[in-house]
Amino acid sequence: LSKFGKRRRGPSLSGRDPVHPYRSTAAQEWREWLSVVSNFMCGIEARPLLQMAKNKDGRPHIRVSLLGIPLVGLLDSGASRSLIGRDGWKKIEGLGLPLEKNDCLKVTVANGSSCKIMGSVEIPVNLDGKVKIIKFLIVPSLVNPLILGIDFWEAMRIVPDVKQGKWTFGENEQGGQEVQVSAALVDRSNLAPEQEGELERFLYKWKSALPAKLQGTDLVEHKIDTGDSAPIKQRYYPVSPVIQAVIDAELDKMLEEGVIERSSSPWSSPVVLVKKSDGTHRFCVDFRKLNAVTKRDAYPLPYVSHILDRLRDARYLSSIDLKSAYWQIKVAAKDREKTAFTVPGRGLFQFVRMPFGLHNAPATWQRFADSVLGPELEPKVFVYLDDIIVVTRDFKEHLETLEKVFSRLHNAGLTVNWEKTRVCRSELPYLGYVVDQQGLHVDPNKVSAILNFPQPKTVRQLRRFLGLASWYRRFVPHFSSVCAPLTELLKKHKKWKWGESQEQGFKDLKEILVAAPVLTCPDFSRPFILQTDASSSGLGAILSQEFDEGEKPIAFASRSLTRNEKNFSTTEQECLAVMWAIEKFRPYLEGADFTVITDHRALVWLKNLKDPQGRLARWAIKMQQYQFSIKHRPGTQNAAADALSRVHEEPVGVINLSFEAVEPWYAKMVREVKKNISRYPNWAVEEGNRLYKKVANARHEIMGQEYAWKLVVPKDQRRDILNEFHDSPLSGHLGGFKTLQRIKENYYWPGMAADVAKYVSRCSVCQQTKPLQRTPAGMMGQQKVVTQPWQLITIDLMGPLPLSTQQHRFLLVVVDYFSKYTIMLPMRQATAKKVTSLVEEQVILRFGAPWKIVCDNGTQFTSNEFRNKMKEYNCSLWYTANYHPQANPTERANRVIKTMMSSYIRENHRLWDRDLAKLSFALQTAVHEATGMTPAFLNFGRELKRSGQEYSQLPDTDVIPGVDRQPHLETLEKLPLLFQEVQDRLDRAYEKAQRTYNLRRRPVNYKAGDLVWKRNFAVSDASRYFSSKLAPKFTEARIKRMRSDVVAELEDLNGGALGTWHIQDLKPHPV
Predict the structure, then answer these.
(1) Looking at residue 265, what is its pLDDT?
(2) Do 140 and 210 belong to one domain?
(3) How does 202-216 read in b/e, with b if 16+ C-beta sit within 10 Å?
(4) Given its phi and psi angles, is residue 131 left (phi above 0), alpha (psi -120 to 50 degrees) or beta?
(5) Deepest of 309, 326, 713, 1053, by most Cβ within 10 A of its Cβ?
(6) Hey, what long-range contacts does 679-684 have (CB within 8 A, 24 or more apart)?
(7) Which residues are CB-contacts of 424 (< 8 A; sequence separation ≥ 6)?
(8) Are 1020 and 1026 in contact (CB under 8 A)?
């Protein structure tokens, strides 16, 4: 504006006056393009500011735009920070900007009172075409909607002239053009009480008139033109009984509503049940093969840019949602057979109503919506697919328009979903923009990924950010100059130091990325390009279009991965990035052709996936409704999306030390060295208050004394140094010695060696991944005291073995602990029922019920069936610790049995059960080293004969002579002494084994409640690209109780049971 308020041409976003000619035609064209995009993206036409109108106190105000929302702010030179008051926050709160908690809890205002701060928020501010990111403090108790403090003045470089009511940009900014200051305020209006009452009566009338249940329309039918393609029949996907029950319930519901009917079609597609975010399921059919042979419907979708242009002056807005929109359109009778699907156990069905997932469904719906509402309701009613928007400037006109819309919907037989319908709203998100009575402005989600990009902490993170910015450098004048402070840190041998110049360059570059013409408005006549990437920590996406000047971004997006998503394979994560990006930018991509650019062949794999289940099924079904092609771009050329995907990585890199607030000893040492440097020849203070100490050694004498000076680290900064030099990938989580030597290269502090040792010993990652470099924990367990045969037995399953000629795969081995008597029972299936039956029939009912049974934690022995049967005979069960088989004596017998079997089967391993009875006889008749007797003798009181010839010669008569029983009675009388001898021998064998065992063991004492690291026995899984060799070796646990000196019952940190574990698989948790 001139001094008298006349209109002049507004300046563009770069800060220069576009009226002034440039030396080159290309530059002039670029400036014109910049101005056009600036006008569109700001949501309001660039226009001169209103003539100055001072408040009663004469304070100057200036009009600015916050993400397209116009506000008038007070120019306050006494405010060190810019503030947003209660009314200002109400205007921008709905944008969903991230509110950051501020360290400062209160702020002192001009009258000396203190006001509480709710938080802070970073917002791009547009002042007459110039965009800067300003960090505002939110002060709800502040009357002024917006106070523009000194930080705003410095960022915008404005020079106000309060006396003349003007302001100008500083030197080299906007050519020094004068602009008027304004004090006009803009408020949002709400419905008056009488208007609210009228609206309620209006809605009550139409809620009663419109059908509540799904009816459908007869005005249009969905046709499926497959040409001369032969019917396609696919097998159904097998599902579990639980999922089958859900499918049956959905099937019954659709039959009742008339959505489907029974079929005898030659076509058949498989059913996929997709789990929604609320836990319920969506019934879907995999129509990918049907879509592949269906001819495309070329019915045009409306130009979104045309719709957006009509929405700028809207004051009253309504959005109408139709209930199950696609199901309200019938499928042509002759084409219904093509939608047929099979449900196991229920038969073949086909759709009567238009199902989700057909290629031409959006075109059919758009054609139908256009015919119902018609062009005569424009420009007050817009339909884009299933979105019906009503916009007017006047309340009465709005109700009249809604009356016409609902009347036409009623005549068409359509059902409205009142729960999702929004009527007479002052603000409405639509097609990636936010529409309100003040105009059309950019959805902050488009730029939030850039605004929230964290400050780089390492060279690697800086390279990523510059890679993102460099992708659009052709649209940024003097790009190299803007990036110069940042690229300076990338030079070889350049020490990392993030200063004010780097911070300003980083901020300027972010402002450029969120301002036009870099972030441009979409041209819906051009195809879209969707760049995606996934990292181990997050997802990134950029929506762009190709123009004559090159590829320009439309919107940015990024998010971190959830805990479960981080466990996905690389391919699944890349697929997730693509599907998430498509859903994120659905308002732009739905119904349009676009290209997906990825550095992974993810979607090719997903499109060709057979029998998709779970999340893969959900992704495959969602992908059916979009029309796109896939283009591979190497990772080196996909730097922009890659940078956004890694925004959420934990920062690693050289620590940027801050010495503004240090502990007293450090500050005292700095003062002493500065005061008397000759007294401290090995100390120095440089770069302000940075303290250095000379620590010389033999290596420094060779390389030079300059390498001997080390930066002294204050106490509050030491943990950051330890984290960087131990936890970073460049440090590799190495041991204490290597970590200490690495830190010594640059830093020093008293007690550094002890701090490093303590830090490394408590590193959770090292505890998980590194084995304990000590002898195994736990001495030999206590001796099991038994006094007679079959008092204590041990059981174990061997197998699976090769399928034998007698169809056996497993071998159940039972050993009597006292006599070492061994029973071998071959089995075809190792089920709990079979194991229980064999133990009862072949052991308990032949040799008597034992007192104790020792077994491992196999499901056959922990089953309720086995437990209950043993409880009937009052037999106690002793379970060995997890992954500690040596506690079960049967394992020693198994080793002998395997050796015996392998000695006779030779090449034909299917004969392993042929000689089991003979091998069992051999074991029972062999003297055992521990007892000194044969198991048969201790059980039967006699030795078993290998042949009849071993008996004494009988006379050649048919009369068997009498037997003298006296010797047998005398032998029976000696049984107690015999058992005592066996018991003594077992004790001596235990003591001998204990001495050998304990030589290489160490005692460890644990108690209930102790935190420990439990060994992790991971199993490789090729389908998930998971290798046990790379899995953590230990996981955290807590001791619930000690069952013995060497066996502990564990639980996880949430109280979940983890079973019993031997202490050799545990290591102490650092205190």
Answers:
(1) 92
(2) no
(3) bbeebeeebeeebeb
(4) beta
(5) 713
(6) 684/709
(7) 191, 195, 199, 316, 317, 318, 395, 398
(8) yes
Among the residue ranges 21-35, 157-171, 485-499, the one predicted with the least confidence is 21-35
- pLDDT (tens digit per residue) in 232-264: 998 887 777 878 888 888 899 889 888 999 999
Stretch 75-84: mean pLDDT: 83
Pair 501, 573 in one domain: no
* Mean pLDDT in residue range 84-95: 83
pLDDT tens-digit map of 577-595: 888 888 877 767 776 778 8
* CA atoms of 774 and 1064, how far apart (whole Å): 11
Q: Which amino acid is at 381?
A: V
Domain that holds residue 1050: 1010-1068
Tokens coding 996: 């050998």
The answer to whether residue 122 sits within a structural domain is yes
| Cβ proximity of 888 and 796 under 8 Å | yes
Residue 160 lies in a domain: yes
Give the rounded percent of residues in the chain with a pLDDT score beyond 70. 75
d(CA 656, CA 498): 7
Residue 957 confidence (pLDDT): 55
Question: Which structure tokens are listed for 273?
Answer: 């049940």
- Assign 545 to helix, strand or coil: strand
Helix axes 736-744, 752-761, angle to 10 degrees: 140
Say what the pLDDT of residue 224 is: 92
Residues 276 and 163 in one domain: no
SS (H, E, C) 934-955: CHHHHHHCCCCCCCHHHCCCCC
Cβ neighbour number for residue 411 with a 10 Å cutoff: 11
Number of separate domains in the chain: 7
| CATH code assigned at 110 | 2.40.70.10
pLDDT bracket for residue 340 (50, 70, 90): very high
In 3D space, the residue among 129, 136, 143 whose CA is nearest the CA of residue 93 turns out to be 136
Domain identity same for 907 and 1043? no
Alpha-carbon span 577 to 583, nearest angstrom? 10
Q: Can you give 847-865 as a three-state secondary structure string?
A: HCCCCEEEECCCHHHHCHH
Tokens 């495959």: give the residue: 620
Residue 865: count other Cβ atoms within 10 Å of its Cβ: 14
The most distant pair of C-alpha atoms in the chain lies apart, rounded to whole Å, by: 149
Hey, what are 342's tokens? Answer: 């099979």
What is the dihedral sign for C-alpha 79, 510, 596, 536?
Answer: negative
Check: CB of residue 855 under 8 Å from CB of residue 880: yes
> Of 178, 54, 76, nearest to 136 (Cα)?
76
Q: Are 1001 and 778 in contact (CB under 8 A)?
A: yes
**Residues 803, 900 within the same domain:** yes
Task: Report yes or no: 413 and 215 within 8 Å, Cβ to Cβ.
Answer: yes
Beta bridge partners of 1030: none
Distances, alpha carbon 390 to alpha carbons 307, 384, 423, in Å: 11, 12, 9
316, 391 in Cβ contact below 8 A? yes
For β-strands 69-75 and 146-148, DSSP reports them as parallel
- State whether 208 and 354 are in the same domain: yes
**How far, in Å, are 119, 662, 687, 688, 959 from residue 672 at the CA level?**
41, 15, 16, 14, 120
SS3 66: strand
Q: Please give the Cα distance from 803 to 784 (Å, whole number).
A: 36
Q: How far apart are CA 652 and CA 642, in angstroms?
A: 17
Of 102-106, 210-214, 888-892, the one with minimum mean pLDDT is 102-106
In the chain, the amino acid numbered 920 is S
Q: H-helix or E-strand containing 709?
A: strand 709-712
pTM: 0.40
Are 420 and 461 within 8 A, CB to CB?
no
Q: Are 821 and 882 in a shared domain?
A: yes
CATH number at residue 1022: 2.30.30.140
CATH code for the domain in which residue 728 is found: 1.10.340.70
Helix (H, G, I), strand (E, B) or coil at 504: helix
